[in-house]
Design goal:
By secondary structure, the chain is of the alpha/beta class. Helices cover 50% and strands 8% of the residues. Helix 13 (276-289) links the parallel strand 8 and strand 9 (295-298).
């Protein structure tokens, strides 16, 4: 992690790119993505790539989010009023980043919210996101007492603290609430539901929409990337791709253009529960409505009846969404719909989503995406167990399962007539030495080679000398 030169006030990555300047952050992104700096700069200038990099987060290792770059994974952290604390959240941060999370979001709603966020920012080399309405809600007894002034004050404070991107539910409007009332689950977004009730109580428009220019001014000053939140995302398959979801999406497309005109980077958040057959359509619709702004999706979850396994039900949808153009995937853990995740749940969620993102990168032909797969295949062919572990997405888990299998089945003993080299036992415990396909094929290959040598015509002395 190398500190980047600080940007001056109001000098966002979008503004620099539109001035045809290749910033240090864009240079870093290009190197990471194996792309030319100008390739990245052009897409940042067009709004098709965002580089979340608050000018106060000086120890950040920048990364880019966009359909033409490698798929990114976000891990949600944060305390609640019922559980967790700073130590637990820092443990989750370490686990998430260690397993390859590209960004983290602090969604704290309990305890010292600002203190937890400060600690995460101080220790995170990856971009940190927040949902400011959560902290604003913690500052009032009743969320109906929220005000535009309070929301803007929280956004300003978080921007000064160094938050790189913020989810703002500015697309949920008064006219959308009746559409959500027709749903099976209504509004499942916390921010969206709070704002819907606030609008119903006060009879006024969403303050984040009404004061969106003020939000943009804050984001421009500190270079905060806006993540335009999907407050009307479907929370079950029955509500997927409905009128409420797409009405909000149309507003988000408007807000993307307003953000770009203000020099503020913007990406768009996408649906939560979508059947497999609707995913491609949702990705394409967002691309057209929002002018190819990076799409950041939660899952999507593709079946509603597997609580405890939603890192799998959503990982399936995430891989398909990414293959069809989603730029970043927000992980889902096994605790989704059940409780606040612990460090183990974070690990399971991040790994599931790294698999989904990596599979999509391969399918999309991202430069270098398959290098790791080809390398681990060569290690398998050579029975190089340590090489396989080092290349695994979760090396610790791979080592753990291998050690368990060796202990249970005695696979560490050398095969008859074969000298075992530690870390290179020439078979796995699934097949054992007698039925190992790679050993059998290795024997076949050697025998075929000998037969070919025996059948080859003798080489004359003159030919050998010329060779």
């Amino acid at each position: 992690m190398v500190p980047l030169p600080g940007k001056v006030r109001g000098e966002t990555e979008l503004v620099l790119a539109q001035r045809r300047e290749v910033s240090p952050a864009v240079e870093a992104v290009a190197a990471r993505e194996r792309r030319e700096p100008e390739f990245v700069r052009e897409r940042v200038a067009a709004g098709r790539v965002v580089v979340p990099a608050n000018r106060h987060h000086t120890s950040l290792s920048p990364m880019g989010i966009g359909r033409e770059l490698s798929v990114k994974v976000n891990a949600n952290l944060g305390t609640s009023s019922l559980s967790s604390g700073l130590v637990a959240e820092l443990r989750k941060l370490e686990a998430a980043v260690g397993l390859g999370a590209d960004t983290v979001m602090d969604l704290s709603t309990g305890g010292d919210v600002a203190g937890v966020r400060a600690a995460i920012l101080a220790r995170s080399g990856v971009p940190v996101g927040t949902v400011p309405i959560y902290e604003a809600a913690c500052r009032v007894e009743d969320t109906n007492d929220l005000s535009a002034e309070l929301l803007l004050a929280v956004i300003e404070a978080q921007a000064r603290q160094g938050v790189d991107y913020m989810t703002i539910h500015a697309g949920v409007l008064r006219r959308h609430v009746p559409l959500a009332c027709r749903r099976t689950l209504g509004i499942v977004s916390r921010g969206g539901a709070i704002l819907a009730r606030w609008m119903a109580v006060h009879g006024e428009e969403n303050p984040l929409y009404a004061r969106f220019d003020d939000v943009l001014a804050i984001c421009r000053e500190h270079d905060v990337t806006l993540s335009l939140g999907d407050g009307l995302r479907p929370g079950c398959l029955a509500d997927a791709s409905d009128e409420a979801q797409f009405a909000e999406l149309d507003v988000l497309g408007e807000l993307v253009q307003r953000s770009r005109r203000a020099g503020v980077q913007a990406m768009v958040e996408g649906p939560g529960h979508i059947p497999l057959d609707q995913i491609a359509m949702n990705m394409e619709r967002e691309r057209l409505v929002c002018d190819d702004a990076p799409f950041y999706v939660l899952g999507p979850v593709v079946t509603d009846c597997a609580p405890g396994y939603d890192h799998i039900t959503s990982g399936i949808g995430a891989a398909l969404a990414a293959m069809h153009g989603a730029a970043m995937l927000c992980y889902v853990t096994p605790k989704e719909h059940l409780g606040l995740p612990n460090a183990r749940d974070v690990r399971d969620g991040v790994v599931a989503y790294r698999i989904a993102a990596h599979a999509a990168d391969i399918a999309r032909g991202i430069p270098g995406a398959r290098d790791r797969d080809d390398a681990i295949s060569r290690a398998r062919a050579a029975f190089d167990w340590e090489g396989q572990f080092d290349l695994a997405l979760d090396p610790a888990r791979a080592r753990e399962l291998r050690a368990e299998a060796v202990a249970e089945q005695g696979a560490g003993a050398p095969a008859p007539g074969v000298a075992a080299v530690p870390g290179r036992e020439p078979y796995c415990t699934m097949c054992g030495p007698r039925f190992c396909s790679l050993r059998a094929f290795g024997d076949a290959k050697r025998l075929a080679g000998r037969a070919a040598e025996a059948d080859a015509p003798p080489v004359r002395r003159e030919e050998a000398r010329e060779g």
